[in-house]
C-alpha cells in the first residue's frame, strides 16, 4: 500500500512563507541601518576634516620652506619633519600601540573576534598621530587611518545605542568601508572593500550588506559637504583604447604582479628590521625616519608625501622617462621605509603613486613602438594604479572600482579589468600572499 505524501512538506505556500526572501519582505526595519547611516556620516565628516588638515599642513610646510634660504630651509625641513614624526611615534606608543601601521589588520582582527577595539583611545590617537605623521611628509596614505578611525566610530555609535555584539560587528565593518570611501571619495570601492578584503561573516548578511552600503553613502555625503564633489585625481578623461591593445594591458598586469610580489616581500623585511630595534634606536625611530623624510622633501619634494599630489604633478610636468623610473625606485624604497617603521598610515595612496611613475616611465617608449595600437600612452597609468593594488592586497574588484572612482575614467573599465586580474593571478602564481593577511598573522603571533 502506497503511503500518502506529506502535504505540509510539499505545499508551495508553506515553502514560500518559510523562505528567507519572504521573511525579509515582512520583517521590521532593522535599527542597525539607521545607526550605520549616522556612523557613516560621522566617519565622512571626521575623515574629511582629517584630509583637509593634512593637506593644509603639507601645503603650508612646502610654501614656508620654499620661501627660506637654501641652508635654513634644509635645517627647518629636517627639524620639523623629525619633531613631528617623533611626537607621532611617542603618542602612538604611549597611549595606543594598536594604532600603528594602517590599522586594517586590527579591524580585521576585531571582526574575527581576535582583538578588542577600544574606540576611546584609538579614535583620538589615530587622528592626532595621523596628522603628525602624514603632515611630516611621510610616504604613507590617509586611507589606513580613516579605515581604523571609521571602525572606531562604528564601535562608538554601537556603544551609544547599546548594540549587541553582532550589531557592533556590523557597524565596525560598515564604517571601515566608509573610511575607505572617505579617503578616496569612492563609495563603491568602500562597499566592495568590506566584502572582498575584511571578509566578515554575519548572522544576517542581507541587513549587513545594506548597513555597509548606507554607511558608505552617508560617509561620502559628509565628506563632500567639507571638501566638495569630484574625483580625487582630476586627470584627463581618456577614450576606450582599441581591443587590439588589450595584450599590452595584460603584460602590464604581469609586470605589476611581479612588482607587487616584491613590494610585499620587502615590506615584511622592513617590518622585521624595525621590530628588532632596541634601546635608543627604538625610542628615536620616529626622529631618525622623520628627519630623513625632511631631508628628502627639501632635496626633491616629489619623493615624499602620500602620493595624490605627486600623481597630479607627474601628469602636469613633462619629465624624461629615466627621471620618472628613478623616482619610482626612490618612492618604492621610501614607502617600504615609512611603513616598515610602524608609523600610522596606509599604503594604498603610495602604491598608486608608484604605479603612476612606473607606467609614465614606460608609456612613452610603448607609444613609440605601438603608436596606432596605443594612441594615448597615459592610459597605461590608469590601469596600472589598480593593477599594483590588486597584486599586493589581492582584492582585484576593490582595486578596479577604486581606480574608476578616483580618476572618473569609466570608459577604461575593460583595460583595468585585464590589468588587475592579470596582476592578481601573477602575484598568486609567484607564491605571494595578500599583504593584510600577512600583517594580521604577524599581529596574532605577537
Concise structural overview:
With 446 residues, this protein is mainly alpha-helical. The protein has helices at 7-10, 12-18, 20-26, 31-66, 70-95, 104-111, 119-135, 143-160, 165-184, 187-198, 205-227, 246-275, 280-283, 285-299, 308-316, 321-340, 348-369, 379-393, 396-407, 413-429, 435-445.
Topology (SSEs and partners):
Elements: H1 7-10, H2 12-18, H3 20-26, H4 31-66, H5 70-95, H6 104-111, H7 119-135, H8 143-160, H9 165-184, H10 187-198, H11 205-227, H12 246-275, H13 280-283, H14 285-299, H15 308-316, H16 321-340, H17 348-369, H18 379-393, H19 396-407, H20 413-429, H21 435-445
Folded structure, characterized:
Keywords: Chloride, Ion transport, Membrane, Transmembrane, Transmembrane helix, Transport. With 446 residues, this protein is mainly α. It folds into 2 domains: 31-227, Clc chloride channel (Orthogonal Bundle), CATH 1.10.3080; 243-445, Orthogonal Bundle (Clc chloride channel). It contains 21 helices and no strands. The protein has helices at residues 7-10, 12-18, 20-26, 31-66, 70-95, 104-111, 119-135, 143-160, 165-184, 187-198, 205-227, 246-275, 280-283, 285-299, 308-316, 321-340, 348-369, 379-393, 396-407, 413-429, 435-445. Helix 6 (104-111) crosses helix 21 (435-445), helix 9 runs parallel beside helix 11 (205-227) and helix 12 packs parallel to helix 16. The chain is globular and about 65 Å long. The N and C termini lie far apart (68 Å). The relative contact order is 0.14. The model has no long low-confidence stretch (mean pLDDT 90).
Amino acid at each position: 500500500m502506497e503511503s500518502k505524501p506529506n502535504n505540509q512538506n510539499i505545499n508551495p505556500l508553506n515553502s514560500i512563507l518559510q523562505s528567507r526572501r519572504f521573511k525579509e519582505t515582512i520583517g521590521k526595519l532593522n535599527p542597525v541601518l539607521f545607526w550605520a547611516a549616522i556612523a557613516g556620516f560621522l566617519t565622512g565628516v571626521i575623515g574629511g576634516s582629517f584630509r583637509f588638515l593634512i593637506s593644509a599642513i603639507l601645503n603650508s610646510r612646502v610654501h614656508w620652506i620654499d620661501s627660506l634660504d637654501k641652508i635654513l630651509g634644509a635645517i627647518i625641513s629636517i627639524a620639523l619633519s623629525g619633531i613631528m614624526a617623533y611626537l607621532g611615534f611617542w603618542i602612538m606608543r604611549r597611549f595606543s600601540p594598536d594604532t600603528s601601521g594602517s590599522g586594517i589588520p586590527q579591524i580585521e582582527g576585531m571582526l574575527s573576534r581576535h582583538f578588542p577595539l577600544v574606540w576611546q583611545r584609538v579614535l583620538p590617537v589615530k587622528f592626532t598621530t595621523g596628522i603628525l605623521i602624514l603632515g611630516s611628509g611621510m610616504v604613507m596614505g590617509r586611507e589606513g587611518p580613516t579605515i581604523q578611525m571609521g571602525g572606531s566610530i562604528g564601535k562608538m555609535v554601537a556603544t551609544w545605542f547599546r548594540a549587541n555584539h553582532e550589531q557592533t560587528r556590523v557597524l565596525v565593518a560598515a564604517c571601515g568601508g566608509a573610511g575607505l570611501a572617505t579617503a578616496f571619495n569612492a563609495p563603491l570601492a568602500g562597499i566592495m572593500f568590506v566584502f572582498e578584503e575584511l571578509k566578515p561573516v554575519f548572522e544576517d548578511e542581507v541587513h549587513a550588506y545594506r548597513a555597509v552600503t548606507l554607511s558608505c553613502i552617508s560617509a561620502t555625503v559628509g565628506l563632500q559637504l567639507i571638501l566638495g564633489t569630484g574625483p580625487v585625481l582630476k586627470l584627463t578623461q581618456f577614450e576606450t583604447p582599441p581591443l587590439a591593445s588589450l595584450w599590452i594591458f595584460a603584460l602590464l598586469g604581469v609586470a605589476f604582479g611581479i612588482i607587487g610580489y616584491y613590494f610585499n616581500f620587502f615590506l615584511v623585511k622592513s617590518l622585521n628590521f624595525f621590530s628588532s630595534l632596541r634601546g635608543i634606536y627604538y625610542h628615536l625611530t620616529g626622529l631618525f625616519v622623520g628627519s630623513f623624510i625632511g631631508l628628502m622633501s627639501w632635496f626633491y619634494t616629489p619623493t615624499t608625501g602620500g602620493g595624490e599630489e605627486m600623481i597630479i604633478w607627474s601628469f602636469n610636468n613633462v619629465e624624461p622617462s629615466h627621471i620618472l623610473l628613478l623616482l619610482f625606485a626612490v618612492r618604492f624604497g621610501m614607502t617600504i621605509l615609512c611603513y616598515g617603521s610602524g608609523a600610522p598610515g596606509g599604503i594604498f595612496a603610495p602604491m598608486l603613486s608608484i604605479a603612476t611613475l612606473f607606467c609614465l616611465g614606460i608609456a612613452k617608449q610603448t607609444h613609440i613602438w605601438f603608436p596606432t595600437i596605443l594612441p594615448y600612452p597615459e592610459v597605461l597609468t590608469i590601469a596600472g594604479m589598480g593593477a599594483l593594488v590588486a597584486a599586493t592586497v589581492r582584492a582585484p574588484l576593490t582595486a578596479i572600482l577604486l581606480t574608476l572612482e578616483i580618476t572618473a575614467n569609466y570608459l577604461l573599465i575593460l583595460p583595468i579589468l585585464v590589468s588587475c586580474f592579470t596582476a592578481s593571478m601573477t602575484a598568486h602564481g609567484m607564491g605571494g600572499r595578500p599583504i593584510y593577511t600577512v600583517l594580521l598573522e604577524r599581529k596574532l603571533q605577537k
